[in-house]
Task: structure prediction
Amino acid sequence: MGNDDLWFRDGECWYLDTSVRGRRIRRSLKTANRQQAVSRARLILAELERQGPRALRTQGTTFNDLADLIRQDYERNQRRSIGKLLTVLARLRDTAIVERGNAAAHSRSHWRS
Result:
C-alpha cells in the first residue's frame, strides 16, 4: 500500500482510494488517526486479496447465463453489432454441444475397451 492510497478529507477522517485486480476501491476508514487508518486499510486490502478474483467465485454460472448477460448488454446499449453477436453465440453454443457429445462418446468407448 503506497502513500497515495490514503487521503485525509475535510479534516474529519482518512479514506482509502486504491485498486485491487483492476477494481477501484474507495472507502472511509472512519478515523482521524493516521496509524489507525493505515491499519484498517491493510485489513481491508488483505480481506479483498483473500477473497480472490471474482471469476473464481462465480460457481454455477453457465455459458447460457453469460450469453444472456452479453445479449442484454447489447440490447440496452443499442449496439448495432447485435446480429453478429447472436451469430457468434449460436456458433459457440453449437460447438460446445458437439464437443460435449464427442467427449461423452469418447469416454463411453474408452470404458468398453
Summary: The chain has a mean pLDDT of 80. Residues 82-112 form the longest helix (31 residues). The first strand starts at residue 6 and ends at 9.
